[in-house]
Amino acid sequence: MPVPKRKLTRSRTRSRKSANMALAAPAHSLCANCGASRTPHTVCANCGWYRGRVAIDVE
Ligand SMILES: [Zn+2]
Q1: Is the dihedral of CA 33, 35, 41, 44 positive or negative?
Q2: How far apart are the CA of 48 and the centre of ligand 1, in A?
């Protein structure tokens, strides 16, 4: 059975983990109606637009 030749240093292990565990920026897209930044698959908080029509009333 193959066995690693050398022990991985704590620093190497931790730096690999940190690269994989880093938080990704939250997804966002632009509203097709007003151009404001919004979360995908949600109604636009700025104008109430969703899937080509006004879905909710925004004061
Ligand atoms: Zn909008």
Answers
A1: negative
A2: 6
10 C-alpha to center of ligand 1: Å? Answer: 48
Cα 29–chain centre separation: 11
Q: Could you tell me which of 11, 47, 44 has the C-alpha nearest to residue 29?
A: 44
- 10 φ/ψ sector (left φ>0, alpha ψ -120 to 50, else beta): alpha
pLDDT tens-place string over residues 9-49: 999 999 999 888 888 888 888 998 898 899 999 999 889 88
- In 1-59, where do the E strands start and end? 29-30, 37-38, 49-50, 53-54
Which phi-psi region, left, alpha or beta, contains residue 18 (left: φ > 0; alpha: ψ -120 to 50)?
Answer: alpha
